[in-house]
Fold this sequence. Notes:
Layout: H1 10-15, H2 39-48, H3 52-68
Amino acid sequence: MEKPTKKRTLNELRxxxxxxxxxxxSHFEFVEGSIKFDNxxxxxxxxxxxxDSDLGKELRxxxxxxxxxxxx
Length: 72
């Protein structure tokens, strides 16, 4: 004998997630050629340069250094 199913309200039907979404792997992998920043170095720059303009200049230098593999 089968159990009768519960009548659900419209809100209960909207809240059910029977499928389980999984994002594609590409969301978690770095794209080839992406720049990987050193968080500790950036934190040191933030402490050293409280002015946003100066900090921006130094971050740009750091980014270009990583991108081009050149010296500071």
